[in-house]
Amino acid sequence: MVEIDDTLVRTLVAAQFPRWAHLPVTAVARQGWDNRTFRLGDELLVRLPSAEGYATGIAKEDRCLPILARHLPLPVPEPVATGAPGAGYPYPWSVRRWLPGDTLAAAAAGDLDRVAVARDLGGLLAALRRVPTEGGPVAGRHSAFRGCHPSVYGDEVEQALDVLGDRVDAVACRAVWARAVTSAWPDAPVWCHGDVSAGNLLVAHGRLAAVIDFGQCGVGDPACDLVPAWTWCVGAERAVFSDAVGLPADAWRRARGWALWKALVTLARGPHEEQARVLGAVLADPVAG
């Protein structure tokens, strides 16, 4: 597999988009798992899928991001151009508008208005549900089943509990999971982001400023997008987030199941301080369900 570095990016850009060949290329400090990201000058970025399984996200985002951008209250990455395989790199890649701000994961705690961010995020997710779904991809394998019913991962939950044994409260975990799978989204499918993590949210001046990485987006059940209630929010922030989201208790039960699944499967692979904290929060606080 070819190494994804700034040299490769310069080579691809010079060959396919020579008008940008003079722009400096710099890897962003915090890289994601699915894609490698590089700044191209001051106003552009280049995203390259890290493996074949993520390559289909390029065409999907090219199609979906313009739809979402017209309706959301915060910026999303605007597609500028799409590159083809080349220079030994085997996948399509994309050029997007650079969005300023730090990721929520990297932002210093003292620089954030956490309650305002929780409210902003809940409002953003409520707006996402109102975006017209015509042309949106139905949730499925391409979205890692985000937007589908959480029961799709029922086998993984049981396998993780078997591996973890008495390292977790299996009785409490199974109770949360049982409540998560006893309801389903009753309305027409709506947009969901699919990966609302602190690394995919940008903040500026203490407030939410943009949302990025729609590679797992789809149209389906929005419960999967509520997991920041446990992965990021603490204490009273959860109630603020819940109020702004505006979804009923059954959606929160499914959301709790999504957060439980992720924590368990991660912990089953080995110690993970952050997911251990998330699991504790999931078991302690149903938020609204």
Automatic annotation (TrEMBL):
<dbReference type="InterPro" id="IPR051678">
    <property type="entry name" value="AGP_Transferase"/>
</dbReference>
<protein>
    <submittedName>
        <fullName>Aminoglycoside phosphotransferase family protein</fullName>
        <ecNumber>2.7.-.-</ecNumber>
    </submittedName>
</protein>
<dbReference type="GO" id="GO:0016740">
    <property type="term" value="F:transferase activity"/>
</dbReference>
<dbReference type="InterPro" id="IPR002575">
    <property type="entry name" value="Aminoglycoside_PTrfase"/>
</dbReference>
<dbReference type="Pfam" id="PF01636">
    <property type="entry name" value="APH"/>
</dbReference>
<keyword id="KW-0808">Transferase</keyword>
<feature type="domain" description="Aminoglycoside phosphotransferase">
    <location>
        <begin position="30"/>
        <end position="258"/>
    </location>
</feature>
<dbReference type="InterPro" id="IPR011009">
    <property type="entry name" value="Kinase-like_dom_sf"/>
</dbReference>
